[in-house]
Write a structure and sequence with these properties.
This protein has 118 residues and is mostly helical. It has six helices and no strands. The protein has one domain. Helix 1 packs antiparallel against helix 2 and helix 2 crosses helix 3. It is globular. The relative contact order is 0.10.
Length: 118
């Protein structure tokens, strides 16, 4: 695997995370699927592995300095993420690649429609 491709995927996800609060599912997973040609479960696992480190620390600090970070809310969301990622990972282990890809596509389409319509 070319490390420069992975760094560019991370840079792109980081910029979009700073702009819109997105990264893992919306940017990293599709990029790993199509540019790095990873199977779906590997792409999701790799994305979670990258996010495990303090990936949002500098972006969160910038928002905090601008008065736009609600720490208490962040901690509650983090608690949900902690357990939710475990549940989701366990569910994904029982699905084949094609089914997981289709479920991901349905999620992305639903989110796109909701953002577009408002």
């Amino acid at each position: 695997m070319d490390w420069t491709l992975l760094v560019f995927i991370g840079l792109g996800a980081g910029v979009l995370a700073g702009l819109f609060g997105i990264g893992g599912g919306v940017v990293i997973v599709p990029a790993l699927l199509y540019f790095a040609r990873m199977p779906m479960q590997n792409a999701v696992g790799t994305s979670l592995g990258a996010l495990l480190l303090p990936v949002g620390a500098l972006g969160a600090w910038t928002y905090y300095r601008g008065g736009h970070l609600e720490w208490r809310s962040s901690l509650w969301v983090a608690l949900g993420l902690f357990f939710g990622a475990w549940v989701g990972a366990r569910l994904a282990q029982g699905l084949d690649d094609a089914t997981l890809r289709r479920l991901f596509a349905v999620l992305m389409a639903a989110v796109s429609v909701k953002v577009w319509v408002g």
